[in-house]
Amino acid sequence: MEWYPWLNAPYRQLLSWHQAGRGHHAILLHAIDGMGEASLAYAFGRWLLCRQPDGVKSCGTCHSCALMSAGTHPDWYVLTPEKGKLALGIDLVREVLEHVHQRSRQGGAKVVWIPQAEILTEAAANALLKTLEEPPEQTYFLLACREPGRLLATLRSRCLHHHLSAPAEPQGMQWLQGRGQYDNAVMSTALRLYGGAPLAAETLLQPARWQARQAVCQGVLQALPSGDWLSMLSTFNHEDADVRLYWVATLFLDALKLRHQAGAARVNQDQLELVRQLAAFGDDKLQQGARRGLQCRHQLLSITGVNRELLLTELLLDWEKIFSSGAQLHPHPFSV
Question: Domain DNA polymerase III subunit delta' AAA+ ATPase lid: where (predicted)?
Answer without folding.
Answer: 167-206
